[in-house]
Design goal:
64 residues, mainly alpha, 3 helices, 0% strand, flat
């Protein structure tokens, strides 16, 4: 069951991420969709969690 959840999260997360990448050249909110895809992937994958944490830290530094 855990493996199935991991596969579903990977498929959904990568789909959202690819849509976000497509929105870099198409009209749309890529800057919202790409982090959403990474956040979905971060629920199951450590590498995505690291990326998400780095992005969060950069925004925290800009906020100060």
């Amino acid at each position: 069951m855990r493996q199935l959840k991991r596969i579903v999260v990977a498929v959904v997360g990568f789909t959202v991420l690819l849509i976000g990448i497509a929105l870099l050249v198409l009209p749309g909110p890529a800057f919202i969709v790409i982090p959403a895809g990474i956040a979905i992937l971060a629920t199951e994958f450590v590498w995505a969690r690291r990326i998400l944490n780095k992005v969060k830290e950069k925004f925290r530094k800009k906020d100060r």
